[in-house]
Amino acid sequence: MLKISNLSKTYKKGNIPIPALRNVSLEVKQGEFVSIAGRSGSGKSTLLNLIGGLDTATSGQILFKEKDLTRIKRSELAQHRRFSVGMVFQSFNLIPYRSALDNVALALTFGGAPRQKRKSIAEGLLSQVGLEHRLHHKPSELSGGEAQRVAIARALANNPAVLLADEPTGNLDSLTSEEIVGLIRNLNRDHGLTVLMVTHEQEIAESVSHKVIHLLDGKIVHQDQRGGIA
Amino acid sequence: MKLLDLIELGFDNLRRTKLRTTLTTLGVVIGIGALTSMVSFGTGMQKNITDAFKANDLFTSMFITSKEVNIEQVTEGNFEGIAEAWKRPATPLTDSTLTTIQQIPGVDIAFPEIRFPVKVQIDSHDTRTTLQALPAMMGNKKPFNQLMFGNFFRDDTSKLIVIDWNTLKKMNIFIQDPEHPTKLTLEDSLRGMRTLHPDSIIGKSIKIVSAVLDGSQLAFNPMQFLMNSGRSFFSESITEFKICGIHKKSSAFSDNQFRGGIIAPIKAAQNIPRLGFSNVWELLGSSGKEGTYSSLYLRVKRIEDMKPVRETIEKMRLHVFSISDQLEEIKRGFMIVDSLLGAVGTVALFVAALGIINTMVMSILERTREIGIMKAIGGSENEIRMIFFVEAATIGLIGAFFGLILGWIVTRIANVIANSQFLPKGEPPVDFFYFPLWLIFGAVAFSIVVSLAAGLYPANRAARVDPVKALRHD
What we know:
The complex is a heterodimer of chains A (230) and B (474).
Chain A (H helix, E strand, L loop, with lengths): L1 E12 L2 E13 L4 E6 L5 H8 L7 E6 L2 E2 L5 H11 E4 L11 H12 L3 H14 L15 H12 L6 E5 L7 H18 L2 E6 L2 H7 L2 E6 L2 E7 L5
Parallel strand pairs in A: 3-8, 3-9, 6-7, 7-8
Antiparallel strand pairs in A: 1-2, 1-4, 4-5, 9-10
Chain B lengths: L2 H14 L1 H38 L5 E5 L5 H6 L2 H9 L5 E2 H8 L4 E6 L1 E9 L2 E10 L14 E2 L9 E5 H6 L2 E2 L11 H5 L3 E2 L2 H4 L3 E6 L13 H4 L9 E11 L14 E4 H5 L6 H7 L8 E2 L1 E6 L5 H10 L3 E3 L1 H44 L1 H9 L4 H42 L14 H27 L3 H6 L2
Parallel strand pairs in B: 5-12, 7-11, 8-9
Antiparallel strand pairs in B: 1-14, 1-15, 2-13, 3-14, 4-5, 4-10, 6-11, 7-12, 10-11
Helix pairs in contact in B: 1-15, 2-13, 2-15, 2-16, 13-16, 15-16
């Protein structure tokens, strides 16, 4: 469902070009759990942002369900972010003054869900991630694990084809990390959700993924196939 | 995303920053308040004057002269120019001309314009004023169909007169106005003014002393200046009339210069020995004849009749003067005044617009990360832009609403002050300010447009926020 070929991204700092990705090619199948591992600065997040439609490539191709993300209009890219992918970040990125329920409902608002159904859909999503008792709490009143669950619920709001998780456990202790990774794995295993997860924790990557991609200085150095999809 | 959702999101943000929103909106409130009170003063003046004109049917009135009357020459006191114009040969205004004019379709009423200065005397009270002669028919027409007390005369030959409230006051006779009751001021009492019941005035005998050279009320009579040359060798002649009605008092914007201080039936007035126009004519060496008039007053049925009637009369080689000629000029004058007043108010509104820009740019800087999040979960540039537009428009709308209230309150206060400070005591109160519907809706629309324009830059800036950078933003 996702085919990336010769993808490059170069940032500019002043007049100095800084390459973040160099000729990256990879393929992700429907229902696969793919981890992207590598040191910080290796281009993991850049790759995820390009797939998520938050950023635009310098060259190369990102074919998502036969559509080239590098050639579509910005408004179509917004549609892609809204309906095709769900993103989860290290720093949760919840809107601080909105309750857990309202954070999820906002994604539903952008997705065009009918007003009267938004609340019940959001409640359903939050209970799916085990937060039915924290609906009306603001992010500041939630623990890190709870906040990341809200973010996952929000990412799932518009039934995306792919979940893009950028270091989802980076701000969490090891126990909570395991819970969150478990939750994501369950979504993949039980609901067939395709997952792309950026992580620098080798152990986590190897324990749950079908495939681990190792990035170094913007290049894929190693692809570790750990078994197919059942 | 539906409009309702955008409005909800926009409101959310305004609610969260109550103090800042309130202060920004207050700027708009003051701007709209200033704008509307300024413009309402202009429209108020316009309304007062046009209402006064309408109340006296001045828009459907015209004055016909055989000679060209140059108003500028009169007001500038250019006697030579006037005398020159009056010496030129012209079509005389005779009874037969009058009959022809009366038969022009669209003409409601036409009669010779007769006014002359007189001295009036009731018991020991006297004053100088202008006698105006009118046909009894005018009793059915504005403004003579609404007398304060008594009735308009019904016969052109009867020796009855309608006296103006202000004329009575000049004679130190005060009649209580039932519509606007006022107290006699101390100053007036000391001058010897007496309050009389209208019943004691109606039916009372009044002496009219004519051939008095006084033109104090004759602003409309071009001969006034010629007569002021001071040859006072004329004798007095006394005619007795009875008062049949009292004309209501004039307001600050009223028409007293178009109306005589006393009004007598036309035939009876013609019999009063006087120095009328024809006599003065003789004075200037021209040949005045019996049944010749210096000017005619004409009223058309509808305002649309003005043009055709006027053209017909001009074909008779007569001169026509009407207030409606001046109407375009007057309207242009009001336009200029309104625009000047509006410009002052608009400056205030533009200052408020800068406030909106400032507030929204600040808000965007604070909410960069939030904008990034909204984009990451699928918000398009257009939606983000619209959210900020809704915020700006809301500030504009709320500002306009309270601005109108503020403007209204300010004008009410100003009106009370203006009425107590600038109007002579005892005059009926005048509303100096007027809020027509177009001003109310115009102010709301203008406020929203200005606010949206102010929101243009901030909203575009928000729409262009780079989500990758925004999400890294602290």
